[in-house]
Amino acid sequence: MNILITGGSGFLGARLARTLLAKGSISLRGQGAMPIDRITMTDRVAPPDDLLGDRRVAHVQGDLLELLQSRRLPTVGTDLVFHLAAAVSGECELDFDLGMRSNMDTTRALLEACRALGSQPMFVFASSLAVFGNLPGQPLPEPIRDDTLPTPQSSYGIQKFISEQLVADFTRKGFITGRSVRLMTVSVRPGRPNGAASGFLSGMIREPLAGLKAACPVSPQATVALASPARTVEGIILAAEADDARWGPPTALNLPSLRTSVGDMAAALERVAGPQATALLDWTPDPLVQRLVRGWPGHVEWTRARQMGLAADADFESIVRDYIRENPGAVKLPLR
Amino acid sequence: MNILITGGSGFLGARLARTLLAKGSISLRGQGAMPIDRITMTDRVAPPDDLLGDRRVAHVQGDLLELLQSRRLPTVGTDLVFHLAAAVSGECELDFDLGMRSNMDTTRALLEACRALGSQPMFVFASSLAVFGNLPGQPLPEPIRDDTLPTPQSSYGIQKFISEQLVADFTRKGFITGRSVRLMTVSVRPGRPNGAASGFLSGMIREPLAGLKAACPVSPQATVALASPARTVEGIILAAEADDARWGPPTALNLPSLRTSVGDMAAALERVAGPQATALLDWTPDPLVQRLVRGWPGHVEWTRARQMGLAADADFESIVRDYIRENPGAVKLPLR
Q: Is the pLDDT of residue A334 over 80?
């Protein structure tokens, strides 16, 4: 089994690769487990050293669109593509053309390249909760279902939603076997902040645990739909593994989410790391972020994911404890 | 007022131009009627002679994508674009790459060219009922509403739906003032058959009236959502004229439709032109067309269009009589 992971050096791409390498094999569409021979990671930067040290990992560094145009990727014999590479929401809003290139042109070029393979490879596309947005002057539908009409209110969301459509049509035409999963806001992300407007939902946990101040620019009542890194990667892999009946229709699937509030997240942090942690939170409101967050769904149903056997995180405190266990070097505060 | 009509030599484009020229003025977003100084028609072929004879009409012939890339279109000072040009559904299903170029790349290039004008021109996009399709093994939602999630089951439908998303985001970003209207199946189209799978819904009236045989390849019970050419053009123009409050949200709007059946259409033909007309109908079923038509919505709600003041045709017989009045030279049978 020959796997390509785009955005492979990102936090999710690297975690996905580690999980696959630890599994050692994968079953496509329920057709029996096959050993993983190779994972090709592509990104603008090199993947982490632990991945480079695995003899099954290859690494192709560069701009994905250029790599596709020069036919360096995908390599012949690619059976499975996880397409995670994307410019993030904040970037796409600041630079429209960058977003169209990174998120729409690149996805289309990757789909065309997979079509050219002629082998109908499995193509798992990481879409996003960001396809949902509230129309001007209207609240979001409550709850958001798998078949709610997305009305994206960001260029990032539009580009993800357009890519879902392309994946669906390339699949219908028999060019690929495509499956789109909508990732929820992933928290707690380790590492450094990225340009995503949702970044504070990880930073408000990660930075205080490291003894650093963190912005919490919305009200404690703001509700959000979150998933831990582990649950997110689990959903991405199951999208490739599920047989056709278990997967269901060719439309995008909402991954499971935990419905919580920013105030409850801060309370979980305090239960784990005490008031010295929450004292590092700066609750100065940022009207721009507040407006954006109000447009994000806090209540997302995931009926199809549940029918597939996926589950959400039990509560936010366990997400915080998972983060601490997985990132011991990033925690400086004494824990309770 | 400087207007560009793409697909201007097609039947709808030409009818739109004639209607606008007869009006003489148009009001954009409810901002007061302005005289129409120029209508630039673009298409691969020349527009009809009556339009070329109007001094307000200019004509730029060629491939639209090439005309946009060479910056011949849109001309400086364009206030309003009606984007009707498209490869039709049958073509796009036979030639995937042609459809992507004609319906997706060209729409995007036109949107970029309008953005480059810097004047936020009004952009009316002719989308289609074809964005709706039934998922494999599932019936269509009944009824289809303005906010039903489209799950297109044709490349044409996917390309139209993607274009709706681009129009919405270019509008949100302030590059254009975009409005997408979903055209219903237009019947009775005059002229010759085109490559659309829905073509028989005009041919089954037009050909018998001309004394010719016509295929009716589905069962009389098949339900369809139709609009006459007049009602269709009315909706396209109102999309440009309505003020923002009357237009409503930035999502696409279903134009009004008459819900009828193929059997009722044949009965209307017989009431107008007698059994000699319906004797020319060949009811041999075509399984491919039957399958396609089953995937088309027969029951489409148009709540937003009604709130804007638009109306559907009263009944199919009046559509047939309108066709006969407007196309006297195309009718060879004696009428009742």
A: yes
Q: Nearest residue of B to residue A93 by CA position?
A: B173
Write down the ipTM of this complex. Answer: 0.95
pLDDT of residue B197: 77
Angle separating helix axes A200-209 and A316-326, nearest 10 degrees: 60
pTM of the model: 0.96
User: A13: pLDDT confidence band, cut at 50, 70 and 90?
Assistant: very high
- In this structure, which amino acid lies at residue B255? L
Using alpha carbons, select from A40, A78, A33, A32 the residue that is nearest to residue A56.
Answer: A40
Chain B positions contacting chain A at CB under 8 Å are: 96, 135-136, 138, 147-153, 155, 158, 161-162, 165-166, 168-169, 172-173, 249-251
Instruction: Tell me how many domains chain B contains.
Output: 2
Same-domain status, B157 and B217: no
C-alpha to C-alpha distance for A336 and A115, rounded to whole angstroms: 54
Per residue in A135-146, pLDDT tens? 988 889 989 999
Average pLDDT over residues B133-161: 93
The verdict on residue A72 lying in a domain is yes
The reply to whether B81 and B208 lie within a common domain is no
Neighbours of B26 (CB within 10 A): 18
pLDDT(A134) > 80: yes
Which residues of B are less than 8 Å from A136 in CB distance? 249-250
Instruction: Give yes or no: A323 in active site.
Output: no
pLDDT of residue B171: 98
CATH (domain of A109):
3.40.50.720
Whole-number percent of chain B with pLDDT over 90: 89
Average pLDDT over residues B295-323: 95
Q: Are residues B34 and B47 in the same domain?
A: yes
- Would you call B158 and A151 a contact, using CB atoms and an 8 Å cutoff? no
Structural domain including B283 reads 197-224+257-330
Q: Is residue A191 part of a domain?
A: no
Same domain, A66 and A134: yes
Which residues of B are less than 8 Å from A254 in CB distance? none
Q: How far is B148 from chain A (nearest CA, A)?
A: 6
* Whether B211 and B100 share a structural domain: no
B242 min Cα distance to partner chain A (Å): 18
CB contacts, 8 Å: B96 with chain A: 173
Residues of A whose CB is below 8 A from B103? none
Residue B155's nearest CA partner among B101, B235, B79 is B101
Asked whether residue B169 is assigned to any structural domain, the reply reads yes
A15 and A163 in a single domain? The answer is: yes
Question: Is residue B206 domain-resident?
Answer: yes
- pLDDT at res. B195: 67
Residue A147 to residue B149, Cβ atoms within 8 A: yes
d(CA B129, CA B184): 5
Cβ contact B165–A161 (<8 Å) = yes
Could you say which DSSP state residue B105 is in? I
- C-alpha distance across the termini of chain B, in Å: 45
